[in-house]
C-alpha cells in the first residue's frame, strides 16, 4: 500500500525547500523529493541570495548558513570592446547586520537549507525523479517517481521542479518555451586566493562585491554577464536569451571564454584556476510567460512558475516567497480539508499581490522590448563609451567643442529622434 | 532464519578527491562522503540471502556521526537494522585497531541476536587494504573467506556455506563451516535502484549508536591511534606512465590497426594463435 502524505514538494531548490520548511514547521506531514544526489547538487545560479526573503523563512539565517560574502558594493559596467563605463554603489550599511544580500554557492547553501527543513520534520528523498503527476478525476493526488513501487500519494502536490517543469508540462499548465522566453546562462567558478580577491575588488576582509556586465560582455546581444566574489572563488558568468544565441549562431561556452578574456575582465580573473563549469536555463519571459499556477490538488512555485525578474537579476528571492506563500495556503487548506482549485487559488492571489506579482507586472514587456530592439545593447552602449572617452580625454580641445563632437557622433537629426523615441520606450517598459 | 551482519564504511569518493600536493594526503573536504562501493555489494548480497532463506540483515560501521548517512544508504538497499560505534577513542585506528573495535561491537550485536554470517566488501576505496574483514574473522575465530564471487548455498541446519572464490585464472568452490566471514568481489551482484518504500524507511531510520562505554570487555589500549601499530613512513604519487600510442581514423581502421599491434606484441597482450590476414 503506497504511503500517503499531506503534501509532496517536488524539487529541493529555494522555492521547494522554503515551502517544505514552512509546512513542516506548521506540523504538516511533508515529503520533499530531489532528483540530485543532494539538494544543491544540480542547482545553479549566479550567486546572489537576498537577505529579506530568506529571513522571512529563517530569521537571522546569516548567523549559521554557509554564505560566501555579504555584498557591500554593486557595480555596473557598460562595456565596449576595449572600454567600459562603470558606475556603482558601495555602502558599509550593507557590511553589517541585517545586511542586504550575500553571495552563495548553491551546492553548499541548498544542502544546508534542506537540512533545516529536515530538522523541522520534512522527509527528504534524494536521487529520485518525479516523472508525472498522478491524476484521478481531474485532481492531482500524487506523483509517480522513477523508483520501483514509486507511487506516492498526497492531498496536495507542490511543483518546484524548476524552469523546465516536466510535471507542469504533463498537466498542460506549461507549454514549450519560445526561444525569447528563456535565457541560457553559463558560468565558471574560478579559484583565487582570498587576499588577492580582496585586493582586486577593493574590499575589506570578508566583504563582497558584484559586478553586472552589459554590452560587449554579450557581444551586444540582449543579456548580461556577472562577476561575483565568493570566499576564495569568483563566479563569472554570462547569459543571453536563446533567441539571441540562435540568431547570432553563438555557442554559450564561446561567449563565456570571450568575457573571461575581455580586457575589462581579464585583470580580475587572471591566474585564477577553473574549478567548476555550470550551465542553466533561466525563465525570462516574465509575466506573459507565467503558466497556470494552481489546479485541483496542485500548486506551482519558483522557476517552474517562471518567477524571475530578469531586469534586476532576481529569482531566488521570488522563489522563496512563492514557496512560503504556497505553504501558507496549504496550511489553511488542510485546516479546511479543501484542496480544490477554488480554495488553493488563494495562493495565486497572494502571490500576485506580493512584490513578486507587482514586479513581474511592472516589467512585463521589458525583456521582449529589448529583444525586439537590439540597438540598446548593440549601438547605445558603445556610443556612451565613445562619449565618455571624448569628454575625459584632455587634448587641448575645448569642452564646448567636445560636446559638439559627441552630439555629431550620435548621428543625423533623424537618428537623434530615433534615440529619443527609444529612450522614451525604454522608460515606458521599465517605469 | 539467518542473521547476517554486513560491515560497512563511509569513505570519501576517491574518484573525484583531490590530493594535497604538499603533503600527498587526501583533501577529504574536496570529495563527498559515500558508502564504500564494495560494501554496497556486501549489503546487497546479504539482502539477497535474506530473500532466499529468510532472516535479518544488520549493518555495522565505525565512524564519526555523519557516517549515519552510509547506514541509511544500506537501509535503502534493504538492510533491516543499523549499528554504529562512534567515539573519539576509536579515532585514528588502523586495520588492526578497527577490526578489534568492530569485533567488540559484533559481540554485543550477537548477544541480542546470534550472528550466522558476516559479509564485508573486498576492501575500502580509501585504504585499499582488504585487511579488516579477515582481521575480524581471526578475532572471532571463524573462517575468513576472501574474494567471494558467488554464494551457492547456505545451510544453517548443517552449518555449511558453499561458495565460489575468485582466483587469478578461474574460481574455486569452497565449503565452509558456519558462522563464517565473507569478503565479496564487486561482480558478485548488481546493486539495483532502491524501491520507494526502502527510501522512505531509510530517510526516517535512526541507527543504534554506541560509544566505547557501551561495549563490553574492551581493552582501551587496543583502540584508536594507540592501538594502531601501522606507521606510514612516506606517501608519494606514482609517476604517470609515459608513451602510449593513439590510433586515428575510422572505427574499422582503428580496429585493424589495433589487431596488427596486438599480434606484433603478442607476449604483451597474451594473444594466442597466428594472424589470419
TrEMBL record, chain A:
PROSITE patterns: PROKAR_LIPOPROTEIN (PS51257). InterPro entries: FAD/NAD-bd_sf, FixC-like, FixC-like_C. One of its GO terms (molecular function) is oxidoreductase activity. Residues 367-431 form the FixC-like C-terminal domain. Signal peptide: none annotated. Keywords: FAD, Flavoprotein, Oxidoreductase. Belongs to the ETF-QO/FixC family. This is FAD-dependent oxidoreductase. It comes from Paenibacillus montanisoli.
UniProtKB/TrEMBL annotation, chain B:
Residues 23-218 form the Electron transfer flavoprotein alpha/beta-subunit N-terminal domain. It comes from the Bacteria. This is Electron transfer flavoprotein small subunit. One of its GO terms (molecular function) is electron transfer activity. Gene3D superfamilies: HUPs. It comes from Paenibacillus montanisoli. InterPro entries: ETF_a/b_N, ETF_b, ETF_beta_N, Rossmann-like_a/b/a_fold. It holds the Pfam family ETF.
